[in-house]
Structures are given as structure tokens and as C-alpha cells.
Amino acid sequence: MSVQTILFLVLIGISSGILSGFVGVGGGIIIVPALVFLLGMTQHQAQGTSLFILLLPVGILAVMNYMKAGHINWGYGIVVSLTFVVGGYIGSKLSLKLSPHAVKFVFGIIMLLISVKLIVSGYNGIQNER
User: Fold this and answer.
1) For 72-103, how does the pLDDT look when each residue is reduced to its tens digit (9 = 90+)?
2) How many helices and strands in the chain, by DSSP H and E?
3) What are the phi and psi torsion angles at 92 (to 5°)?
4) Nearest CA to 80 among 5, 26, 14, 27?
5) Which of 27, 19, 2, 37 is nearest to 88 (CA)?
6) Which pLDDT tens digit goes with each residue over 52-65?
7) What distance in Å separates the CA atoms of residue 34 and residue 41, rounded to the nearest whole number?
8) What's the predicted TM-score (pTM) here?
9) What CA–CA distance (Å, rounded) separates 72 from 41?
10) Cα–Cα distances in angstroms (integers) from residue 81 to residues 52, 71, 87, 116, 130, in the given order
11) In the chain, which end has fewer C-beta atoms inside a 10 angstrom radius, N or C?
């Protein structure tokens, strides 16, 4: 892994951990798009790696299916998992300092931005298939 890749993985782990602690999300909403858009993983690789990161609390059986299909990047998963813990602590501290309305507003903005990016990316992919 290059230094740049490790820095991206640490950024993904910290930011998804912060957002998880801040608004209760991280996996599918932050980690998957970040792995796709920042590190060029396929959707399946990103989903498999995200499930690996959340393995014990979320879906060991789903991870086993992705593992059998070869869609988990173990190195990426380990780096993001470790930094996710730190980010979760920071995010929960930030969230608890704000009103629930402010947190809801931030969560909505984040979901809107990611949704627009995914919609545009998916639409462009469909157009390229034609």
C-alpha cells in the first residue's frame, strides 16, 4: 500500500467513525462511496470491504459470501477499522455538544451530497453502457 492510499484509508476511517458517533451512520453511507470514489474500488469490493470493517456488529455471514467471491480488500479493511474506532469517539463527543436539530441538519446535508454524487455516477454509468 502506498502512503497516499494509507492516508485515504485513515481519512475514511476517521471520517466514518466521526459520522457514526455523530449521527449514527458510517458503513454504507460513508465507507462504500469513499472506497469507490477515492480509491477506485468496484461497488462489490467496496461493499465487501465495508462489511468486513463492520463484521462483528453487522454481518459475518454477508462477509463470508463476499470473501468467497473475492470481493474483500483485507488491508484496506484493517486500516479503516482501526481508525473508525478513533473517529467514532470524536464524532460522539461532537454530536453530544450540539442540539438534536443541528445534528439532524448535518446528517441531512451529508446524505444529500452523497445521494447526488451516487445518482450522477449511476446515471453516467448507465449512459456509458449504451
Assistant:
1) 999 999 998 899 888 878 887 887 888 878 87
2) 6, 0
3) -65, -35
4) 14
5) 19
6) 887 666 567 777 88
7) 9
8) 0.58
9) 10
10) 9, 17, 10, 26, 38
11) C
